[in-house]
Amino acid sequence: MTNNTHIWFKDYSLEELNSSRTENMTHHLGIQYIDLQSHSLTATMPVNEKTKQPFGLLHGGASCVLAESLGSVCSWMCIDPNQSAAVGLEINANHIRSARSGLVTGECTPIHVGRQTHVWSISIKDEANKLICISRLTCSILDKPL
């Protein structure tokens, strides 16, 4: 998507997005939305005791949580929440390398934003800007009952 207009249903702020993360998975894992552009959303997640697997590496499931959180929020921002709901349909993730500490940063960009489905690409990198995980999330857009 290369046009210069934003894809969001309305103007959202980082404060609004971060205030919605209390007492849910993003809050518990320390995910913080840090950058919102016209066609992308970026968030960080600490690599710590909440996000590591028993061998001290970033858990692949935690990377999937970061990816799905970003993609789901992006789909939600593209729709009229009074008329539609966005739900995860499929996620895949390729874990390229591991992380042991610090922050990882995920950036979500659109592949397809249609009326019934949205497809998002999420790249997760470490503090050295090395690719940790590449993920794709498909969301289904459902009509809310009248």
Characteristic key phrases:
globular, Thiol Ester Dehydrase, Chain A, alpha+beta, 21% helix, six-stranded antiparallel beta sheet, 146 residues
Structure explained in plain terms:
The chain has one domain: Hotdog Thioesterase (Thiol Ester Dehydrase, Chain A, Roll). It has 146 residues and is an alpha+beta fold. The protein is globular. A 6-stranded antiparallel beta sheet has the order 1-2-4-5-6-3. The protein starts with 13 loop residues before the first helix and ends with a strand. Helix content is 21%, strand content 38%.
Which helices and strands occur, and which strands form pairs?
Elements: H1 14-19, H2 25-29, E1 32-36, E2 41-46, H3 60-78, E3 84-95, E4 103-113, E5 117-125, E6 131-143
Antiparallel strand pairs: 1-2, 2-4, 3-6, 4-5, 5-6
Task: Tell me, rounded to a whole number, the average pLDDT.
Answer: 95
Rough outline: globular
CATH class categorisation: Alpha Beta
CATH topology: Thiol Ester Dehydrase, Chain A
Helix content: 10-25%
**How much β-strand is present in the residues?**
35-45%
**Which structural category fits the helices and strands?**
alpha+beta
The H-level CATH homologous superfamily, spelled out, is: Hotdog Thioesterase
Number of DSSP helical runs: 3
**What count of domains describes the coordinates?**
1
What string, H for helix and E for strand, traces the elements in order? HHEEHEEEE
